[in-house]
Specification:
- The chain is an alpha+beta fold.
- 29% of the residues lie in helices and 26% in strands.
- It folds into two domains: 100 residues, no CATH class; 62 residues, no CATH class.
- It has a five-stranded antiparallel β-sheet, covered by helices on one side.
- β4 and β5 form a beta hairpin.
- The radius of gyration is 22 Å and the shape is elongated.
- The mean pLDDT is 88.
């Protein structure tokens, strides 16, 4: 579904970009002052944070800047490069009403861990794939998270069964 705010300021990340209850862990690429054109056409100089991840940049307000400075014990934006932050939606009072706002959790995000349903071991990166990629791909394809080893075993077993079925069909 498309939130109407995505259409009014499509160049920047906002609370409307996250689904209800969703949180997003992103890695800071750089922070700089930029001229931003608002939905009303008004230009304003703002601090904008860009991410290494494939997400839009975010206009960085004072509250969120202070949170990053506190998490990483430095007020210097150059020292934020490569650091991870966790975004979420909060209900805040602004302009005499309660509105949704994009906020940063006041702690360093934990790296997600994924457990293989077959062996109970933590799923680790393999080749060009991250642990998350492997976990999500196997969850989607097989209905359970699997490590690279068990994913390969299931894939090979499926190929063998497919060849066996083809041979049986050809013999009939």
């Amino acid at each position: 579904m498309t939130h109407w705010k995505k259409l009014t300021n499509p160049d920047y990340l906002g609370a409307y970009a996250l689904e209800e209850g969703q949180e997003l862990v992103v890695t800071i690429d750089y922070v700089r002052e930029e001229t931003v054109i608002g939905p009303d056409g008004k230009k304003e100089d703002c601090t904008v944070i860009h991410f290494k991840d494939k997400v839009k940049p975010m206009i960085l307000n004072v509250t969120n800047a202070k949170t990053i400075a506190k998490i990483y014990s430095t007020p210097y934006i150059e020292e934020w490069v490569g650091k991870k932050i966790q975004l979420y939606v909060a209900q805040v009072k602004a302009f005499g009403e309660v509105v949704e706002a994009l906020r940063i959790r006041p702690y360093m995000p934990k790296e997600d861990t994924y457990i293989c349903a077959a062996c109970g071991e933590e799923i680790t990166p393999a080749g060009q794939l991250t642990a998350r990629d492997i976990a999500m791909n196997t969850q989607k394809k097989y209905g359970k998270m699997l490590c690279a080893t068990h994913w390969a075993e299931l894939r090979d077993k499926a190929k063998t069964e497919e060849k066996t079925n083809e041979n049986n069909e050809n013999q009939n």
